[in-house]
Amino acid sequence: MHRRVEPVLRFTRAARWVHRSTAVLMGVCLATAACLYLAPLAQLVGNRPLVVTVHVWCGLALPVPLLLGLASRAVRRDVSRLSRFTPVDGQWLRAVRARAAYRPAGKFNAGQKLYAQWTLGAILVIVGTGLLMWLTRLAPPDWRTGATFVHDWLAAAIAVVLAGHVRMAWRDGESRLGMRTGLVERAWAEREHPQWLAPEEAVRPATDEEPRPAADRQPRAVAADEP
User: What is the residue-level pLDDT of the chain in tens, covering all 227 positions?
Assistant: First the structure.
């Protein structure tokens, strides 16, 4: 008789809400930006004032899901993990460069941390430059010209990086399942994030708080990635 293997809670409802809301807002911003800057799309969609209004307000709302999500203790723990690099992250990067099969990682690997930090920084810059472009009295013309340059090219960079993120997620069905339902298979977690789970961890239902024993655990020889 085979022992039943229960799934593991990876993301709470609050974390999934933050991810989905930010993704929708970012997608609308990129789509409306394309309609504003690409003539064929602009002609197809028409009603430029409406497109501008949607673009501006979705852009201003980009930081809101994360700010609201910080009310959740589980989201704050995830943000803390994503904002700190440990020696294990260096090992993960070296393993990727060497194409090694074993890549040590806590709940988030170094690539995910880099992407999360890039996204947060990009959102802050894109909102700031957008405000300078929208509220013309905030800065002199030279500043607004520079803000427009940064805003446009950063938007293009965001589109490229986001496409890479989607591609990576598309290749990992279990990772997508974790973001969609909050649960992942234990075998996947132990393979992809071997230092996240304790062997004795009990399985919990998908609630707004993740199990406390599930904090990233590192070997004693390296710094622990704990909340």
Answer: 445 567 899 999 999 999 999 999 999 999 999 999 888 888 888 888 999 999 999 999 999 999 999 999 999 999 999 999 999 999 999 999 988 888 889 999 999 999 999 999 999 999 999 999 888 887 888 888 999 999 999 999 999 999 999 999 899 999 999 999 999 999 999 899 988 986 434 344 444 455 444 444 444 333 334 33
Continuous H helices in the chain:
13-37, 39-45, 48-60, 64-69, 73-83, 87-97, 110-134, 141-170, 173-181, 186-192
* Phi, psi for residue 8 in degrees, rounded to 5: -115, 140
Phi, psi of 183 (to 5 degrees): -115, 145
Give the residue among 94, 114, 103, 102 at the shortest CA–CA distance from 165. 114
Taking a C-beta distance cutoff of 8 angstroms, is the pair 201, 5 a contact?
Answer: no
Chain centroid offset of residue 198 CA = 25
Asked if residues 210 and 7 have their Cβ atoms less than 8 Å apart, the reply is no
Helix (H, G, I), strand (E, B) or coil at 184: strand
